[in-house]
Amino acid sequence: MRIIVLGGYGVFGAKLVDLLTRDNHEVIVAGRSVEKAEALAAQFGAGHLAVDRSGDLTPLWALKPDAVVDAAGPFHAYGDDPYSFAKACIAQGVNYLDLADDPAFCAGIAALDEAAKAAGVFVLSGVSSVPAISSSAVAELIKGADEVDTINTGILPGNRAPRGRSVVASILHQCGADFDVPIDGANVPMRSWSRPARFDIGKGIVRSGWMIEVPDHRLFAQAFGARSVLFRAGLELGVMNWSLAVLSWLRGFWRFPIPEWLISLLLWLAKLLYPFGTDAGGMSVAVTVRSSVGWERRTWRMVATKGEGPYIPAVAARVVLRAPATIPKGARPAVAIISLDAIRDGMADLAVSTETLTQQVQPLFARHLEAGNQDLPAAVQELHAIYGPRRWVGRGAVTRGQSTWARLLGALFRFPTDASDIPVSVMMTPYNGGERWERSFDGQKFRSYLGRHKGKMTERFGPFTFTLGLYVDEDQLHFPVIAGRVGPIPLPQFALPKSVSREYEKDGRFHFDVSLMAPFTGAPVVHYQGWLERSAS
């Protein structure tokens, strides 16, 4: 095939040119810089062409390509008519692919479907790590499942991967921006580059990823019937991750634009840190499903070494162009268009290893209570059946302590203020082997993290971790505090708060009643109570 790669001298475009020439395609490297295009073309024995995607395309069409790949980007900055180049390909009867990871651009390509079918060509957007590879992994992992609850993906490149301006610009563009995430059947706003979580991608590599928006969020809930779709990305060096997290926090408050000088500065700093870290990176795609054997977490994970991680975003396009006749005509996002086996074949000449794991899933409370969990009423069991993110809503009331000490503690832990009959919601999410609980009392929010440590249930509020002596009595679940620490420092018994807290069922509904008393004085800090039911959304 004769294939033109627009932006073929960029970070990922160059990798695609390499892969396509290995497959004996006739490849032309195209872009605005004739010097860069010529240099890259000479490296791989390809042709070159100076062309601007928004300018005169006559020289490009004169080469009569079979397919054109847009690897230029950043796709979010393609202006008022972002699909002008794709439309031009359709008009010329040329197959079109791009490596876009911008959600709006990728999802919107379907508007060209009728025109592409009429022209007898395929037009595919997102033929890259997301959504092409991630969706192929999901399609394979959910086979035989009766219910798809959660799709959780992470991409964690090594620090010694090359840095391109388009990639840096794309990350900074959305850093701190709000976007919708499908969670338990509803779209929940999240801030980009927030809520870190750990990923084990194999070969002993465990890294943190941060929430960012990708096409998967807009496409996978409908495509796979998933209730929740999560995606995170992370850099290898903590200083880079936390710098972006600070920028995200600042932009979340002030909403300032990203100037060109900041992109240049951060690109320079990223290159300055290049010698640190490793050349190993990878990807993890996990699905939580219910099948005939119960609830399972099925994970496909991939590790790329020897600096070959940057080839991965180009693999899907390579696979498509190996067998273009198998791709249906029309325009669509690249969701499950190629098989995972074909992707493995497309990585066969790279330093990449993959594996698929399956493990049974048991919620935290059922795991801890063991047989005692069966003694709980159905509503309490259901609330703690956290196989994926769960959102419960209801009504409640709050009474705050009035002493100075109680008010100080209430402010420190961000407990809600006095109120009666207010809306309450709780979002419970599996998190690093435990659960994250985010409570909202009429918009007043506070969160905690539950987990197990040395066989005991714990709940953490910031630096404070309390050990809970959970027990079931008279169809109620009780939560007394039996120990605590600040960071690694244990608290003496007299410095512990007293908790009189219980969960129970009444009239078929889940109810909660939580009273906390201050250490030293025993003065009431907060008392909140109410009912919850599973969100209908």
Task: For this entry, give a set of tags.
alpha+beta, Rossmann fold, Lipocalin, 3 domains, 7-stranded parallel β-sheet, 16 helices, 29 strands, 37% strand, elongated
Detailed description of the structure:
- It is a single chain.
- The chain is of the alpha+beta class.
- It folds into three domains: 2-129 and 309-350, NAD(P)-binding Rossmann-like Domain (Rossmann fold, 3-Layer(aba) Sandwich); 133-307 and 355-359, Dihydrodipicolinate Reductase, domain 2; 364-534, Beta Barrel (Lipocalin).
- It is elongated, with a radius of gyration of 26 Å.
- The mean pLDDT is 95.
- The strands form four sheets. It has a 13-stranded antiparallel β-sheet with strand order 23-24-27-28-29-17-18-19-20-21-22-25-26.
- The two termini are 48 Å apart.
- This is Saccharopine dehydrogenase-like protein.
- Pfam families: DUF4166, Sacchrp_dh_NADP.
- Residues 3-123 form the Saccharopine dehydrogenase NADP binding domain.
Radius of gyration: 26 Å
Q: Quick check: average pLDDT? A: 95
CATH superfamily of the largest domain: Dihydrodipicolinate Reductase, domain 2
E-strand count: 29
How far is it from the N-terminal to the C-terminal residue, by CA?
48 Å
Helix content: 25-40%
Integer tally of domains: 3
**CATH level 1 class label of the largest domain:** Alpha Beta
The main sheet comes to: 13 strands, antiparallel
> What kind of oligomer do you see?
single chain
